[in-house]
Amino acid sequence: MRYGKMWTVLALAVVACTSGDTILGTPSFDALDESLPNGVHGHFLTGSYAGGRQTVHVVLQTREVDFSSYQGVVEFDQGIFRLVSVSIPKTDTHFFNQSEAANGQLPIAGFATDGFDEPISITLSFVTPRAFKTGDIYLKLDVVGTSIGAEVPPALIYLRRELVQGSGG
After folding, report:
1. Which of 8, 106, 10, 87 has the alpha carbon at shortest distance from 47?
2. What pairing do the DSSP bridges indicate for beta strands 157-165 and 105-111?
3. What is the C-alpha to C-alpha distance for residues 23 and 51, in angstroms, rounded to an integer?
4. Of 28, 33, 87, 169, which cross-links 20 as Cys (Cβ 3.0–4.6 Å)?
């Protein structure tokens, strides 16, 4: 039994050293491009596809807007992609309902009383027969709020549909 655990650790180390993804940690994010408009920006950052698995980061960033809360859903085809794990930031307060993933939807929500100080990254790990491509996964934000409880106007919410390939992937 003890040798089985050692082989598992060794196998995980080999995968971590040979694939573009990391087992632990989250990616770093560049500051938003100066040409992007002020508002809340959401996009997906994909990791490498290897061994029938792929990581997708749901990234929410703000530019010159008071951004303190969000509620929405990540949608995907559960017939092709099986969500196996979700990792949320350790800062502020974030929630998800993984039991809904069987329906191809992952409800997400979060808040910070004084606003989010850094980009939010929700890490999703999938078992998949192929790499994700644009159109396979969507982000819908129902509510985005400020620190005083007001709604961020929909005109200031930008959701990028194209997948962005992460570094190393």
Report:
1. 87
2. unpaired
3. 14
4. 169
Q: Tell me the domains of the chain and their CATH numbers.
A: 2-165 (2.60.40.680)
- pLDDT tens for 65-119 read 999 999 999 999 999 999 999 999 988 999 999 999 999 999 999 999 889 989 9
Residue 53: φ, ψ to 5°: -130, 150
Summary mean pLDDT of the chain: 83
146 close to 40: Cβ distance less than 8 angstroms: no
Compute the distance between CA of residue 128 and CA of residue 111 in angstroms, rounded to an integer: 31
Task: Give 35's contacts (C-beta < 8 A, 6+ positions apart).
Answer: none
Helix (H), strand (E) at residue 16: helix 2-18
Written as one letter, the residue type at 113 is T
Q: If you search the block for the tokens 């993933």, which residue do you land on?
A: 101
Structural contact between residues 44 and 30, judged by C-beta atoms closer than 8 angstroms? no
The rounded radius of gyration (Å) of the Cα atoms in the chain is 17
The residue type of 1 is M
